[in-house]
Amino acid sequence: MDYRGRFAPSPTGRLHAGSLVAALGSWLCARHAGGRWLLRMEDIDPPREVPGAAAGILAALPAFGLEADGPVLYQSTRDAAYDDALARLQAGGHAFPCWCSRSDLAAAGGLHRDGRCVAPPAPDRPPAWRLRAPDVEVAFDDGVQGPQRQNLREAVGDFVIRRVEGYYAYQLACVVDDAFQGVTEVVRGSDLLDATPRQIWLQRLLGLPTPRYRHLPLALDAAGRKLSKSDAAHPVDPADPLPALRRALAFLDVPVPAGATRPEELLAQALERFDPSRLPAGAGRAAS
Ligand code: GLU
């Protein structure tokens, strides 16, 4: 099979120890399978975007020896495809306009359910668009975390696919673009494990294939907090790539000998020893 993996960062900060783990894990799986490794810049949230972050991430990856196959897909260029997906979901009766604010929903118990809005329509303001969350269990077998199931109605409720501001939500854009890029396996951090049933449901409604999923253990800092690009914690230094690459490999339990002097050499050693079926599931390991 023509394996395609991807790394899909959001340009909210510099590449950090956690995102290096996701990049490395997806690269190792793709190269191990003899497949392609694609890049996608998830630049669909201008308010959260940090100027220069996209270019910084893309410049850093090759310094760690992580070279993509083919051009980067920028989500900021993909509105027409998202418009089309939204139109299909609307036409199928799966998406509905919603004027409920976060505080409206908090007062009503937190989740939006059964397509029932708390706030009345306000035709003078644009709505968000939500996807109706059915009372069904979506199940999948994660290649690292094992069998998963989630009842969408109970766990997440009707979820936003296009925001009031007119920006498309991550869930919709991710699903449309994983299909557009022909991704056969998604390898990413476990912070997105509970988003996966929403994505699988969207794939079913849109008639798109469901890739395989492997969710890597989440990289935590020494205090047990998720490492996130946006808090600017733990950036990795592309000018001195070997220490961060060694830590990322250790985090993924990939044994490598000492002595490599270039990232490409270290990655080649890692690839010889890498076995995706032995990726560790557990969270809570310090990555930095
Ligand atoms: N853009 C997301 C992030 O940086 C990752 C999306 C994904 O891998 O599906 O957290």
Descriptive overview:
By secondary structure, the chain is of the alpha/beta class. It has nine helices and twelve strands. The longest helix has 16 residues, at 17-32. Glutamic acid (GLU) is lined by residues 8-10, 42, 174, 188, 192.
Task: Please summarize what this structure is.
The chain has 288 residues and is of the alpha/beta class. The chain has helices at 17-32, 53-63, 79-91, 102-107, 152-155, 170-180, 196-206, 241-251, 263-273; strands spanning 4-7, 36-41, 73-74, 95-98, 128-131, 137-142, 146-151, 159-162, 185-189, 212-216, 219-220, 285-286.
Write the layout of secondary structure elements.
Blueprint: E1 4-7, H1 17-32, E2 36-41, H2 53-63, E3 73-74, H3 79-91, E4 95-98, H4 102-107, E5 128-131, E6 137-142, E7 146-151, H5 152-155, E8 159-162, H6 170-180, E9 185-189, H7 196-206, E10 212-216, E11 219-220, H8 241-251, H9 263-273, E12 285-286
Parallel strand pairs: 1-2, 2-3, 9-10, 11-12
Antiparallel strand pairs: 4-5, 5-8, 6-7
Helix pairs in contact: 1-8, 6-7
This protein binds glutamic acid.
Residues 8-10, 42, 174, 188, 192 line the site of glutamic acid.
